[in-house]
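User: Hi! I have a protein structure encoded as tokens and I'd like to know what sequence might fold into it. I'm fairly new to this, so please keep things simple.
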């Protein structure tokens, strides 16, 4: 996906756009998070991910309040630590996990197994065993072979495995639009169109070691319009109607995650959680009415919309240079991190914005914020207006990096992965400490 063309505009000020709710500009021009100046927070070393704890928790609670009679599972893939899992659980959310590591992390946060869901298109026997030993609340079945695999492990353990079936609705959504298409050429889910989903649900329903809970659909990411979810709900409920005729009841429909957020000042503000849920629920209810079935319990799996906007990354500026382009001069500002702590711009052309941690009267100039990695695609912010006097040693903060930042981080170029610091007006605490050279070099056998 190409970068969206952005005008050279400065980042919105704290308190606006994509910034965490407790980010403020102090009287001396410095930026502060929950009352801690970024200069003070940078004493922990940079780069560092900062999480506005109260903002993250409030965003989680907003989904729980909006869904009312329903269930919210926080998508741990967006950012998970034991403490985060615990915060979510204490706010009434379950945890959606997509690997054994995420499952172990949620359990380490003392989240009861019954409040955890397990996804994955390639679940190992040992992961399923761990899940069932901990009385997992739901396993999302993703392929025909899993029916026998899960049933065998459940029968060995003497438990009944609760199963949702992930269906491919033919709806794909993302960004500002959605496409309803028959194109189903992807690795996740079981097709409604080919009958694969029907076959798997029928197998589960008659297996004594499995309990069929309902259907799951996930249509994409960064979705700002509930229309895509409505189209998916329509397709899922039409299928639930067919199952009802065969005597199989769908108790629950999980419509997945993918709720969009603002990354830059140009992005539209997303709907509130209440508006989004109201739009989806009314689509679900009218589809049930049409199919003549009772409305099943609704669940969702938001990740980015909880962890994304509450997180920022703080960097220190290194080298700067002015480069001649076809459009004029562009300033390149290098930072002490890059694609290893935020791979999304390189991976799928994601746009971000950046703010200088001080006030400046200097002219605003077209700037590209680039990382320190050995890749020309190592861009963190493609296009932003920053003061011309940005210089080595300045602190720069990048918005909305809380989701899929640390969770997708790498050690590329043998860098140490940054830590994640939770910040509130009560103090600061590491959610993940920064990696040390011992962590990185300790993986090598001694010579
Ligand atoms: C099945 C499923 N649920 C939930 C999510 C979370 O999506 P988001 O973080 O965009 O809300 C994803 C993301 O890939 C997913 O695949």
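Assistant: Happy to help. Inverse folding works backwards from shape to sequence: for each of the 447 positions I chose a residue that suits the local structure. Here it is:
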């Amino acid at each position: 996906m190409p970068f969206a063309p952005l005008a050279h505009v400065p980042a919105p000020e704290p308190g606006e756009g994509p910034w965490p709710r407790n980010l403020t500009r102090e009287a001396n021009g410095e930026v502060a998070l929950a009352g801690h100046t970024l200069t003070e927070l940078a004493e922990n070393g940079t780069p560092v991910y900062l999480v506005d704890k109260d903002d993250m928790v409030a965003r989680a609670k907003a989904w729980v309040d909006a869904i009312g009679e329903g269930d919210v599972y926080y998508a741990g893939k967006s950012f998970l630590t034991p403490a985060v899992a615990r915060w979510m659980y204490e706010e009434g959310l379950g945890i959606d996990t997509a690997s054994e590591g995420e499952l172990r992390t949620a359990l380490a946060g003392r989240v009861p197994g019954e409040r955890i869901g397990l996804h994955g298109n390639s679940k190992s026997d040992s992961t399923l065993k761990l899940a069932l030993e901990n009385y997992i609340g739901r396993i999302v079945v993703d392929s025909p072979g899993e029916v026998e695999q899960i049933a065998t492990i459940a029968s060995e353990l003497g438990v009944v495995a609760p199963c949702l079936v992930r269906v491919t609705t033919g709806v794909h959504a993302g960004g500002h639009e959605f496409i309803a298409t028959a194109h189903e050429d992807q690795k996740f889910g079981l097709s409604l169109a080919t009958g694969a989903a029907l076959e798997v649900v029928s197998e589960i329903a008659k297996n004594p070691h499995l309990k069929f809970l309902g259907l799951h659909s996930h249509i994409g990411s960064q979705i700002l319009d509930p229309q895509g979810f409505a189209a998916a709900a329509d397709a899922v409920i039409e299928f639930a109607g067919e199952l009802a005729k065969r005597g199989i009841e769908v108790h629950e429909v999980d419509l997945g995650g993918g709720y969009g957020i603002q990354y830059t000042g140009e992005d539209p503000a997303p709907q509130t959680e209440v508006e989004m849920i109201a739009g989806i629920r009314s689509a679900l209810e009218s589809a049930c009415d049409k199919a003549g079935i009772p409305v099943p319990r609704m669940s969702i799996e938001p990740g980015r919309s909880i962890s994304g906007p509450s997180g920022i990354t703080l960097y220190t500026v290194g080298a700067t240079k002015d480069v001649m382009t076809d459009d004029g001069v562009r300033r390149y500002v290098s930072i002490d991190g890059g694609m290893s702590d935020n791979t999304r711009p390189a991976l799928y052309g994601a746009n971000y914005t950046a703010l200088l941690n001080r006030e400046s009267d200097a002219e605003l100039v077209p700037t590209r914020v680039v990382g320190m990695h050995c890749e020309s695609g190592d861009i963190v912010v493609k296009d932003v207006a920053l003061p011309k006097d940005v210089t080595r040693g300045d602190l720069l903060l990048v918005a909305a990096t809380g989701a899929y930042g640390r969770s997708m981080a790498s050690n590329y170029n043998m860098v140490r992965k940054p830590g994640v610091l939770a910040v509130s007006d009560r103090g600061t605490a590491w959610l993940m400490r920064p990696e040390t050279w011992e962590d990185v070099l300790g993986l090598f056998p001694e010579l």
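A useful reference point when you look it over: Residues 51 and 272 are 21 Å apart (CA to CA). Feel free to ask if any position seems puzzling.
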